[in-house]
Amino acid sequence: MPETTPETAATTTPEAGSDLPEQLRIRREKRDRIIADGGAAYPPDVAPTAGLAEVAAEYAHLETGEETDDVVTVAGRVMFVRNTGKLAFASLQEGVGDRLQVMLSLAEVGEESLAAWKADVDLGDHVAVTGRVIRSRRGELSVMATSWRLASKALRPLPVLHKDLSEESRVRQRYTDLVVRQEARDMVRAKARVLRSIRATLDDDGYVEVETPVLQLIHGGAAARPFGTHMNAFDQDMSLRIALELNLKKAVVGGIDKVYEMGRIFRNEGVDSTHSPEFTMLEAYQAYGDQHTVAELTRRIYLAVADSLGSRQVETPMGTVDLSGEWRWLSVYPGLSEAVGREVTPDTPREELVALAAEHEVEIDDAWPAGKVVMELFGEIVEPGILEPTFVCDYPAEAQPLARRQDEDPRLIFAWDLIIAGVERGTGFTELIDPVIQREVLTAQSRAAAAGDEEAMQLDEDFLRALEHGAPPMGGIGIGVDRMVMFFTGAGIRETLLFPHVKPEA
């Protein structure tokens, strides 16, 4: 019996049958024929000597019709192919979308090799071509082949960009989206530049990057519904983290005075154009900082990212945002008062706030306290009209259980949300470090969780024990990295995530 290899084994699968669509059947038959004739459809030893972009840059000076004796081996995916009697032309593509033409002539490669090219190569295949670098008579920089090899046979055709690749297909099959659409490739690299810029700003400022556990016994650090899981080794129910906060604060207690993490967090909530159940969060904490020092840090992070992407002028649906301009501060109650034309303060009775919500057609929950109603009113009435960067501050205490309350009015906290173009882009705090008050707040949260509030935090004794060892005064920030990318690129969250969550295929 002949030896079975991974390549030959696939020829016996049911998918190889005649019930396949014609395009897939023809390509499968080509693969099988190549292997049966002793060739390799997926050779392991293809070794280019130069990248397509490298060749394009090094030989950009060649004049039309000029040839060299410089021999290179290039490789890439076939994105265009045209065969004539004694000539064949193809456009190869690599990585970021760089392309280079290759030419095969009867005189250079011989009749058998040219015939094999015409018979075997389809759009989407990966090929390697060895030959001289020339500038064609039509002015196209090219590699004039002396030989070629199939590097990988594509068994499915590439989609036609404007015909086959719907938005749903782009998200579900991102790999084909990356092949055929330059915007998709640009997004990947734009996000990489954002991540590098954030890290560079924090690293240069003396922050230490750390990693903290994704699996947690107790979820905390935010008001959100967690994903549940189970650790078999300890027979222990656990949660995927909803925030990075508590472990980073423990690190500050331990003496890492400036600490940050950019990590994935998971919230078992809705999915829409601005929300994903899994996303990247930046959190940073600074000993002896406060809401003002971390606001300035946030501003510098945004400016550095803007510079890395090429402009501090950002186009949004609301208009152009100039990040070089003033980053103003706006208190919640005065801002809401101005918007509704009447004074609203922490003393305003809840029934008046409810009436105000009805007047402005803002939906509220009957169980919400007055501070939560104020937050909803501000979010629905004021925030959508804020274009330029604005630190919205002096929130009701209900907004953030982990923020320090103000001495003059404990109903307010030292915290802000950064609003740009009507959307929250980050949040910052003067952190609550008094372990007695923090225990009271988390106990109230725990009671709410026990009463059925799935977003309430649980009582974390280890976090409280850390605070009891003495936490320095500190400021902290949280920035959704994906939302930052959305702001700078104008894309939805599913475009900024390389492989976003989608419903299962039918």
TrEMBL record:
Mg(2+) 1 binds at D417, E424. Binds 3 Mg(2+) ions per subunit. It catalyses: tRNA(Lys) + L-lysine + ATP = L-lysyl-tRNA(Lys) + AMP + diphosphate. It is found in: Cytoplasm. Residues 193-504 form the Aminoacyl-transfer RNA synthetases class-II family profile domain. One of its GO terms (cellular component) is cytosol. Residues 1-16 have a biased composition (Low complexity). Gene3D superfamilies: Bira Bifunctional Protein, Domain 2 (3.30.930.10), Nucleic acid-binding proteins (2.40.50.140). Transmembrane segments: none annotated. Its EC number is 6.1.1.6. Mg(2+) 2 binds at E424. GO terms for molecular function: ATP binding; lysine-tRNA ligase activity; magnesium ion binding; tRNA binding. Keywords: Aminoacyl-tRNA synthetase, ATP-binding, Cytoplasm, Ligase, Magnesium, Metal-binding, Nucleotide-binding, Protein biosynthesis. It is an enzyme of class 6 (ligase). Homodimer. PANTHER family: LYSINE--TRNA LIGASE, CHLOROPLASTIC_MITOCHONDRIAL (PTHR42918:SF15), LYSYL-TRNA SYNTHETASE (PTHR42918). Belongs to the class-II aminoacyl-tRNA synthetase family. This is Lysine--tRNA ligase.
